Amino acid sequence: MSNLQQQRNDVTHIDGNLHENTDVRIGIVVGRFNGFVVESLVDGAIDALLRHGVSGSNISVIRVPGAFELPLVAQRAAESDRFDAIVALGAIIRGSTPHFDIVASESAKGLSAVAMDYNLPVTNGIITTDSIEQAIERSGTKAGNKGAEAAMVALEMIAVLSQLDSDDDIVSA
Ligand code: INI
């Protein structure tokens, strides 16, 4: 084996899988604005979590008026120590708001700040689109379901952080 090949074999890979750690508590924070789209994201997120082995009793859904309110409630949820990850769901549709950019950027910035401040996975399942059609496409039709994606990212992040915290190196090909 060449030295380069040997070095390659020595590389440590830390990956989170989606099924190892199912005993996890997930807080789903939801902005009710554009509810016809948002409720499909909530259904998608819950469905994805249940299908990956998370029990219903470990899932909480917390609703607030709109996406702008999500960072504060995510912060309280993180502070409560009741969750291993928080999934934020909402729909910001440009057509319907002149302050689209403010709501979109403040909610995203606020959620990342919570993740960093509380050292907790906070996933962003807020769809930001130019039109209602695009929002529908991302909430369970042509372009998948962003709520389900954000839920699965939360599970992967919990797993990868727990691998990082553990003493064992997970070596995967
Ligand atoms: N909130 C959303 O979640 N999506 C939107 O598209 C939206 N629009 O269109 O304005 C929206 N606005 C409400 C905002 O989130 C706050 O609830 C409101 O500004 C009060 O703080």
Description:
This protein has 173 residues and is an alpha/beta fold. The chain has a single domain, classed as Lumazine/riboflavin synthase (Rossmann fold, 3-Layer(aba) Sandwich). It is 46% helix and 20% strand. The chain has a 4-stranded parallel β-sheet, with helices on both faces. Strand 1 (26-31), helix 2 and strand 2 form a beta-alpha-beta unit. The protein is globular. It starts with a helix and ends in an 8-residue tail after the last helix. It binds 5-nitro-6-ribityl-amino-2,4(1H,3H)-pyrimidinedione (INI). 5-nitro-6-ribityl-amino-2,4(1H,3H)-pyrimidinedione binds at residues 31, 33-34, 65-69, 90-93, 96-97, 99, 103.
Blueprint (SSEs and pairs):
Elements: H1 3-10, E1 26-31, H2 35-51, E2 59-64, H3 70-79, E3 85-93, H4 100-118, E4 122-129, H5 132-137, E5 139-141, E6 144-145, H6 146-165
Parallel strand pairs: 1-2, 1-3, 3-4
Antiparallel strand pairs: 5-6
Helix pairs in contact: 2-6, 3-4
Bound molecules: 5-nitro-6-ribityl-amino-2,4(1H,3H)-pyrimidinedione.
Give a short overview:
By secondary structure, the protein is α/β, with parallel strands linked by helices. It has six helices and six strands, in the order αβαβαβαβαββα.
How many β-strand runs?
6
Bound small-molecule species = 5-nitro-6-ribityl-amino-2,4(1H,3H)-pyrimidinedione
Sheet with the most strands: spatial strand order: 2-1-3-4
| Helix residue percentage | 40-55%
Succession of helices and strands: HEHEHEHEHEEH
Shape: globular
Quote the CATH topology.
Rossmann fold
Alpha carbon gap, first and last residue: 17 Å
Enzyme class: transferase
Pathway: Cofactor biosynthesis; riboflavin biosynthesis; riboflavin from 2-hydroxy-3-oxobutyl phosphate and 5-amino-6-(D-ribitylamino)uracil: step 1/2
Pfam families: DMRL_synthase
EC number: 2.5.1.78
